Amino acid sequence: MAFKSIKRVEPFWYTPEDQEDLDGEEPLQFKVRGLTSSEQSDVLQSLGAAGRGSTSTFRDCFRIGCQEIKNCEKPNGKPCKNPISFLMLQDSFDYVIEVGAVIFDRSFVTEEEKKTSSSE
Length: 120
Fold this sequence. Notes:
Structural class: mainly alpha
Mean pLDDT: 83
Number of domains: 1
Number of helices: 5
Number of strands: 3
Shape: globular
Strand content: 5-15%
Helix content: 40-55%
Largest sheet: 3 strands, antiparallel
């Protein structure tokens, strides 16, 4: 049987939970992707004693896996599309953790996905 990779790194747009039902406003959105095996290894290695769920782990996932941001403004009113610039914004912490957790979860293949993939 030929090796078949599960598509975990394809980019997609993610809308944070508190942005889903805004009346008349465009929601904050993040273009993210899962981590490659090499990136997964780096993140897992940095986990160390912190364990899964560490805020620094999710921040690292955000830094690596977030490619673009829509509908975000810097304090000066200019658009903030760069994930690294977003990390510097005062109110970004909760979003960085939420999006980083999504990237982390998206990056690792579940046992069910392994079974489904191998049976196709």
